[in-house]
Amino acid sequence: MHNEPLAYKMRPRNLDEIVGQKHVIGPDTPLYHMIQKGHVPSMLLYGPPGIGKTSIANAIAGTSSLPFFALNATHAGKKDIEQIVMEARMAGKVLLFLDEIHRFNKLQQDTLLPHVENGSIVLLGATTENPFHDVNPAIRSRCGEIVQLARLTIEDIIELLNNALTNKERGLGSYTIQVTTEQLTRIAEAAGGDARKALTLLESVYYASDEVDGVTVFSDTAIDALAKRIGVYGDKGGSHFYNLLSALQKSVRGSDVNAALYYLAHLLESGDLVAVCRRLLVMAYEDIGLANPAVGAHVTAATDAAIRLGMPEARIPLATAVVEMCLSDKSNSAYKALDAAIRMINEGKTGDIPNHLKDAHYAGASSLGHKGYLYPHDTPVGTFGGWVDQQYLPDELAGTEFYQPVIAGEEKRMAGIYERLKSFKNKN
Question: Fewer C-beta within 10 Å: the chain N or C terminus?
């Protein structure tokens, strides 16, 4: 037991020892009062690694009088579930913590669900994935609470570190340690809101530091060197990764260069370069669009270069592309117009193609009425090229406007042409 990691030994034993997450299970929350009174509802604990899902489950178990069992869905089998069911029948009610619940297969669910439904098994499920995307609806419907946990704040992490430094029974309190407030803050910042990383880093720094006259003196060099090794929570392909992609796009759309570069950095550290490049290409056309059509070509070139270069050099063209998109004029008019047309078609608002637009490149086309098309290039209009007043939409949709120009950047000029051509049509 002495070889257990500090992060394991410092897990809270009851609700009052939980650090952080006060918004969901603090002393003033309904959930806290329910559990203190002996009522534990089935719930899903959702959030990134290291923010307290397992700790909260253990704290609930320590506060509750129910028999407690823990399983991991990645390797639990039907026999494990059947054993829990037998325990529930004998005890009347048990508390089951199921980590990685999104990996539960149908057979395991079918074995467990009736007992969760009748209350003999109180289920505490933990997942790093969005439960609305990755947890079976049958499980979700039987969990009264979906508890979204947040990354711990710097203050939370420092409180956790101080607890570990002073706790003689489970922490480092029996050792004499010299550590400054600035050093604890550096450890907390390096952990990135992850309690497990913070405690692991604290323990590593303790063993890496020199002892002087019986006092372990934490060194800045050890903290800096070890902090670089704790890594970034990337969750490639998971909910957090897609949240990062969403945050990147919304930051570019909002023209916030610094936020966009931050999310780009996080995504590149997560390791899925192809997914990042695909999202940047979409953004060039979805968010910049006609306001600056050249951006599409620029981003295509940047993403092609990034794929060829690979990391870490790929970050250079991608950073250029992101800054350019942030500071570019923006328009979503083109794809919004197309979506409006698609919506109309799906609603059944269609019509026949006008005869003069139908294919006439074969003998007999004129006998079918496929004639009367006027070739616009034969009628020049200033420097525009050519234009004639003829109907292109089906009769049922004549006059419908899908495109609503955005007066921004290059599209301002296009909008002027659009309105000018409409005025010609209205005159005729």
Answer: N
